[in-house]
Amino acid sequence: MRALPVLALAAGFASQISSPFAPPQDACGVVFNDLNSNGIRDYGEPGLADIRVSNGRQVVLSDESGKWCLPLPANDEQRQDAEFFVIKPQGWMPPLGEHLLPKYFYLHRPEGSPKTRYAGSKETGPLPLSIDFPLHKQVEGDELRVLIYGDPQPRNLQEVAWMGEDVVEECRSFDGSFGLALGDIAFDNLAIFPEIASTLAETGIPWWMVLGNHDINYDAPTDKLANETFIANFGPANYAFDWGPAHFLILDNVEWVVPAEGKANYQARFSEDALEFARNELALVPKDRLVVAAMHIPLKGVQNGKVLLDLLAQFDYSVSVSGHTHTQRVDELGAQHGWNKAEAHTHVVHVTACGSWWSGEPDQRGIPHSTMRDGAPKGWLEWTFTQGKWKFDFRAAGEDASTQMHTITGDIVDGNLEVWVNVWNGDPRNKVEARLNSAGDWIELKRVLAPDPSYVALVAAEESRREDKWRKLPKPINSTHLWHGQLRMADRWNGPMQVYVRVTDRWGRIHTERGVTPLPAKLPAALNQ
Q1: Residue 150 shares a structural domain with residue 130
Q2: Over pLDDT 70: what percentage of the chain?
Q3: Which of 17, 68, 470, 471 could join 359 in a cystine, given CB atoms 3.0 to 4.6 angstroms apart?
Q4: What distance separates the 2 farthest-apart alpha carbons in the chain?
Q5: Angle subtended at Cα 232 by Cα 230 and Cα 237, rounded to the nearest 5 degrees
């Protein structure tokens, strides 16, 4: 075969054809069927029609020959920087680059990124004559399984190693299509992005990344320049793709604010560029398609989150996901949050892969248990998507897949045993019941907003012996997945009893746990007779 004169660029996996003449004012290129999956357009490889391509704001469809054109977007910094990318269609896949990261974009940085503590993109020179995006066919079924991590957030290579041994290792057997990391990929140390990506790649699946507030360049002078290191490593901060039965919209909702006086900081807000991209790309998505919107900061705390909710409300099916809080939580967003449909919009705040920022007493391997401040363990969620439907399973690091909760027993008061159940991925739609011994009556427990008693005790116990040997656990907060009740003890105490727990989740699945009630130090006199 005769290859066209193209060059695969490190700035993406787009191909470029250089021009000896003045650089064009618009970016143009071809989306093509990469029949031999070599990343370049060989003779006879056809263009692909009706494929979405974006410059981060506008979205166009490729024509019958696969050609597309887009203008350079206006830039407040008087720079000509831009990202051009293809929106992966269902049944097609861009090439995978180093560390199994999809290469679906071309980064245009004529002069390179501005100098910051952590490097951005290198100088790319003038806009190429042609930016070509290779895609190859792949089989995508009616069911899609996805691995989603909240905040991996290692500070250094030691914590990267902990993540690999304690979390990633268990995901090597995950039978799914790809992974999605919901921001705070790192903890301010952006130099270790490559090592984090390399460790995640040990799962053997591609990874898509969301930008978090600890992934930005803190020395950047503006919000538009604050993502340069993230973009150089992972690609655009706002993008989208289709996979199987679902459409995924990835948005940056971390706005970097640099005041004329005072300290720079971030706020939870979608930029106008992000919202313009969302409007334009969602306009080309069928209204009966399931839309999954992913971001870092939970949606109900985003200043202009209602704009996104209005866009999602146009679709028959939608769900949104985030990380950031280092808790597991399910928010049902209604009219008070700006959602304008009768049935609530579900937003899932994800358990984090780092738990409570890699804190707490180390185990026998030297890895902190890092229990989260709502009492749930560190871990991840495994999602399943079908046509218009979704569900997820909580996976706790170091635990069997069937382990979904823990039970706490307290004092016996007037013959009643206090019981709390922390259902790690519980939400208001769960039904939680408990009983004493296998023949007891099931008693429905009440969902309460309170700290997990076992986590409160853990924090106090560790602090009494910590002596700065490990990072201090964060203070307890109210758990949104805690249930409480009282179980009537037998008339006579006959030794240890067992508390049985039965949880019916929002999909009707039943999860169970059985634990031994510890013998109280002091039993009521009536039970000692």
Answers
A1: no
A2: 91
A3: 471
A4: 99
A5: 50
pTM of the shown model? 0.93
Query: C-alpha dihedral over 119, 121, 126, 130, to 10 degrees?
Result: 170
Q: Distance between CA atoms of 92 and 62, rounded to whole angstroms?
A: 15
Q: What is the pLDDT of residue 518?
A: 58
Tokens for 305? 């989150």
Q: What is the pLDDT of residue 466?
A: 84
Single-letter amino acid code for the residue at 3: A
In degrees and rounded to multiples of 5, residue 459 shows phi and psi of: -60, -45
Distances, alpha carbon 64 to alpha carbons 1, 32, 50, 275, 470, in Å:
23, 11, 7, 29, 61
Q: Measure Cα distances from 66 to 303, 468, 527 in Å.
A: 39, 61, 80
Domain count, the chain: 3
Domain shared by 362 and 236, yes or no: yes
**SS3 at position 45:** coil
Burial state string for 309-325 with b = 16 or more CB within 10 A and e = fewer than 16? bebbeebebbbbbbbbb
Structural domain contains residue 377: yes
Bridge-based pairing state of the strands 431-436 and 443-444: antiparallel
